[in-house]
Specification:
alpha/beta, Rossmann fold, formyl-coa transferase, domain 3, 2 domains, three-stranded antiparallel beta sheet, 17 helices, 11 strands
Length: 386
C-alpha cells in the first residue's frame, strides 16, 4: 500500500519507550526510520521483567545503525546522514547530545529544514532540570492518585505517559513538516512526560472548575450512569456492563424481566436512577448471577448495550477481532522467535499500516546505510567505528 510518509527520512537517537514510540508512529506510516545505536546495541534490547517487551513493541519498521559516535569518523558519518534527513528524534537528558555535537543548533546549521524532536521529562520551567520517568510524572501529576483507590496511588497498568508523550512528539513532527512546505525551515519540537500527564488528567481539573468539587479517585468515583460497573456471573467470572441512556434502560429492563422498573417514578431518568441506585441494583445483581459469563455477554451483545469481559494482555494474541483485519502484526523477534503485536490503531482507506521490517537486530543495516554514504566499511571496522 502507498503510505502517507513515504519519502520522509527520520534519524532516531532514542531508547526505552518515549522516543522509540515517536519513531514507531512515523515508521508505521511509511517513513524510513534509522535507529542509531551504540556499538553492541541499545541497552533497551537487554531489559528483562516489565521492560522485556519495550524493544520489540516500539522498534518495528526501522533500520538499525550501530556506530561509535565518540569517534570522529563515526560522528562524521552520522552527520552526513543527518544532512539528508527530514526528522531527528532524541530522548536523552538535557545537554547530552549537545556535548556530542548533535544538539539542535549544530544540526540545524547543517540542515536548515530538519525537524528536531526532543522527548523530555519536563518542558521549560522550574522542573526542567529534574530527571523524570513515566511513573514519576504519573505520581506527581495526579494520574496515579486517580487510578488507585483512596490512599493508595497506583500507576496505570501500561507506560501510558511514555506512549502518549511519544505520540505528541510525532504529532509535533507532522505539524512542523507541514509548516516546512511553506517556510522551507525546520523547527525544534519538544514533548514531555509531565505536561503529557497534566493533559491526561485535564478532564478531572475541569470537573473541579465546573462543579467546585475535586474529582475522587476512579475506584471511588460516583458514576454518571446508574449501571456502569462490574458484575459477577454464575460461573465465578466478571463482566462490565453499562446502561447509559434512557432508551437503553428500557431495552435492558424488558430483556431481563425487570419491566416493572420502567414505570417507577423514582427511576424515570438516568439522574434519578443514580440517586436511587440501591432500589434496583440488588435485582440486577441477582439477574446477572443467574447467567454464565458467556450467556450474559451473548444476551447483552444482542441488545446492543455496552459490555466487556475482563481481558488480559496475553489473551489478545488470539482475539478474533484483532486478528481479522491486520490488527496484529506477526514479526520475528531478535532471538528468532515469532510474536504477534498490535498494529498502529488507525487505518487509511480501511487499510491498516503493515509490517515492512521486523524489529532490527543490532546493527543489522549498518553496512547498507554506510555504503549508501560511499564510506569504506573495512576501514570503519578496523578503526573500531562499527
Amino acid at each position: 500500500m502507498s503510505l502517507p510518509l513515504s519519502g520522509i527520512k527520520v534519524i532516531e537517537f532514542s531508547h526505552m519507550v518515549m522516543g522509540p514510540c515517536a519513531g514507531l508512529m512515523l515508521a508505521d506510516m511509511g517513513a524510513e526510520v534509522i535507529k542509531v545505536e551504540p556499538v553492541g546495541g541499545d541497552k533497551t534490547r537487554r531489559l528483562r521483567g516489565a521492560g522485556a517487551g519495550y524493544f520489540p513493541m516500539y522498534n518495528r519498521n526501522k533500520k538499525s545503525l550501530c556506530i561509535n559516535l565518540k569517534s570522529e569518523a563515526g560522528k562524521a558519518a552520522v552527520l552526513e546522514l543527518i544532512k539528508g534527513a527530514d526528522v531527528f528524534i532524541e530522548n536523552f537528558r538535557a545537554g547530552a547530545l549537545d556535548k556530542l555535537g548533535f544538539g539542535y543548533d549544530a544540526l540545524s546549521a547543517i540542515n536548515s529544514g530538519l525537524i528536531y524532536v526532543s522527548e523530555k521529562g519536563f518542558l521549560d520551567g522550574p522542573y526542567s532540570h529534574r530527571t523524570a520517568l513515566d511513573e514519576v510524572t504519573q505520581m506527581m501529576g495526579g494520574l496515579a492518585y486517580m487510578t488507585g483507590p483512596p490512599g493508595r496511588p497506583l500507576r496505570a497498568g501500561s507506560s501510558v505517559v511514555d506512549i502518549t508523550g511519544g505520540m505528541f512528539g510525532a504529532m509535533g513532527a507532522l505539524a512542523a513538516l507541514n509548516e516546512r512546505h511553506h517556510t522551507g525551515k525546520g523547527k525544534h519540537i519538544s514533548a514531555a512526560l509531565y505536561e503529557t500527564t497534566a493533559f491526561l488528567v485535564g478532564q478531572h481539573m475541569a470537573q473541579k472548575a465546573v462543579t467546585g468539587t475535586a474529582a475522587a479517585p476512579m475506584p471511588a468515583r460516583v458514576s454518571s450512569w446508574a449501571i456502569y460497573q462490574l458484575f459477577d456471573t454464575k460461573d465465578g467470572e466478571q463482566v462490565f456492563v453499562g446502561v447509559v441512556s434512557d432508551g437503553q434502560w428500557k431495552t435492558f429492563c424488558e430483556a431481563f424481566g425487570l419491566a416493572h422498573l420502567i414505570d417507577d417514578p423514582d427511576l424515570r431518568e438516568n439522574r434519578d436512577r443514580v440517586i436511587h441506585k440501591d432500589k434496583f441494583l440488588p435485582q440486577i445483581i441477582d439477574a446477572f448471577k443467574a447467567l454464565t459469563k458467556a450467556e450474559l455477554m451473548d444476551k447483552i451483545e444482542n441488545l446492543g448495550l455496552p459490555f466487556a469481559p475482563i481481558g488480559k494482555p496475553e489473551e489478545l494474541f488470539d482475539d478474533p477481532h484483532l486478528n481479522a483485519e491486520g490488527g496484529l502484526l506477526d514479526m520475528e523477534m531478535e532471538d528468532g522467535g515469532r510474536c504477534k503485536l498490535p498494529a498502529l490503531p488507525i487505518s487509511f482507506d480501511k487499510a491498516r499500516p503493515e509490517l515492512r521490517l521486523d524489529p532490527p537486530k543490532a546493527g543489522e543495516h549498518t553496512e547498507e546505510i554506510l555504503l549508501e554514504l560511499g564510506l569504506d566499511i573495512s576501514q570503519l571496522k578496523s578503526g573500531g567505528v562499527i
